Amino acid sequence: MKKEWGLGTRSVQGGYEPKAGEPRVLPLYQSTTYKYDDVDQVARLFDLEENGHMYSRISNPTVAALEEKVNMLEGGVGALATSSGQAASTLALLNICGAGSHVIAISTLYGGTYNLFAVTLKKIGIEVTFVDPELSAEEIEKHFCVNTRAIFTESIGNPGLNVLDFEKFAQIAKAKDVPLIVDNTFPTPYLCRPFEHGANIVIHSTTKYIDGHASSVGGIIVDGGNFNWNTGKYPEITEPDPSYHGLSYTETFGDAAYIVKARVTLMRDYGSCMSPFNAYLTNIGLETLHLRMERHSENTLKLAEFLEKHENVAWVNYPGLENHPSYALAQKYLPKGASGVLTFGVKGGYEAGKKFMNSLKLAALVVHVADVRSSVLHPASMTHRQLTEEQQIACGITPDLIRVSVGIEDIEDIIKDFDQALK
Ligand SMILES: *Cc1c(COP(=O)(O)O)cnc(C)c1O
C-alpha cells in the first residue's frame, strides 16, 4: 500500500508508523545511546549481523524516520542524513573516491559545492573536472579518464537556474559505467524525482525546501540502488572490508551496498551526523512539502510574469517562463512547477539594485533561499563582493542581478512590495 501512496501522503505519513498506544507524532529521541540486556546482541550489532541503534552518531530513531520519509519520496533503497548539505556532497563522493580518483562535475554548481570540489577535495588528492553542462555528450565524454568515479550534477543550478538534461547525463554515466549523482535541493522530490530519469545517487541540502522554514541546517544522501558496482572499479564497495572482519558490502547488503557503507564507515569515522532535534524539526517541515512547493512555484511564476512587464526591470530569469533557455527541459522534468527561485536585473545596475533591495518591506535581505518567507540577495554587493567584476561575470553574476526566493505569502502582497521598491 505504501508503495502506491502519492507524494503528498508520503510527505505527511511516511517514515513513521506508530503501533497501538504509541505517540501519533514522531517523537524526538534526544538520546545518544541505547540499552541492551545481552552482550551477544551488542556484538552482533557491531558486526552488522543485526539491525538496531547503538549510538546516535551512526543512527537514531528520529533521524531514521526522516531518512525513511525522504527515501520514500525519492523512491530509493536507503538514505543517510548528514549535518549539512555540504556534508552530504562530501560523503557522497568520499564513499567511492580517494586520493587519485577523478570526478566530472557540471560547472554551474552551487558556490559552496564548487569550492569543496575545486579547493578542498583537490588538497586530499581528488581531482574534479568542471564541464559546461551545455556541451554535447561526446564532448563531455572526452574528459573521462580511467580513474573517473562519478558525475556530479544539480537538477536546477543555483543561481543560474539551468535545468539538468537528465537524459544526456544519464546516457554518459551509463556509457562510462559511473554513477550519476544529482543534487536535487532546488526542486525537491515533489517537483522532480531524479531516479526516474537515470540518476543513481541523490543528495539534498535539507536546510532548504525539505525543512522549508529556515530552522535547521542539514543534508541527506539517497541511494537509488540502481547502479552496478561490480565492475572492478569500486573495490571499497565490492571487496572485503578489513574494518568489518572482511565483509563485502555488495555481497551482504545487495542493492543498498553504497548507502550502508556510507553509514557504517564514513559516518562512523567522520561523524558529520544530523542531530535528532534537527531531524525532528525537519520532519515537521517536510509534512507540508507538497503544499509548499505548489505555492512556491505558483507565486514565483506570477512574480516572474509581473517583473517581465515592469518598466524598471531589465531582464527576468526563471525556467518556468517560455523565453527561458531551459523552458523545454523544465516542461519535461519539472511539469508540476519550476520551484521558488528566480533572478532578475533592475534597470540602472549596481546602485539601482542596492536601492531596490533597501526599499523592500515584506521580502527580507538574507543569505538563504527556500523558506516560507520571501527573501532577496544581491550577490554583487553581498556573497560575491570579494570577486572582481570580470570574475563575477564569469560566475554569471552581473552587477544588477538580484536573486529572489519567493515565499508562500499572498502573491498580491509580494507583488505590491516589489512594485513599490522598484518605483
Ligand atoms: C545550500 C545548498 C547546498 C549546501 O547545503 P548546506 O545545507 O548549506 O550545507 C548544496 N547544494 C545546493 C544546491 C544548495 O542550495
Quick structural summary:
The chain is of the alpha/beta class and 423 residues long.
**Which fold does the CATH topology of the largest domain refer to?**
Aspartate Aminotransferase, domain 2
* Average pLDDT metric: 95
Q: Could you tell me how far the N terminus lies from the C terminus, measured between alpha carbons in angstroms?
A: 54 Å
Largest beta sheet: strand ordering? 1-7-6-5-4-2-3
- Helix coverage percent of residues? 25-40%
Q: What small molecules does the structure contain?
A: pyridoxal-5'-phosphate
Shape: globular
Description:
The protein folds into 2 domains: about 270 residues, 3-Layer(aba) Sandwich (Aspartate Aminotransferase, domain 2), CATH 3.40.640; about 130 residues, Aspartate Aminotransferase, domain 1 (Alpha-Beta Complex). About 45% of the residues are buried. α1 runs antiparallel to α3 and α3 packs parallel to α12. The chain is built from 17 helices and 12 strands. With about 425 residues, it is of the alpha/beta class. The model has no long low-confidence stretch (mean pLDDT about 95). It binds pyridoxal-5'-phosphate (PLP). The site of pyridoxal-5'-phosphate has 16 residues, from α4 and α5. Pyridoxal-5'-phosphate (PLP) binds next to α4 and α5.
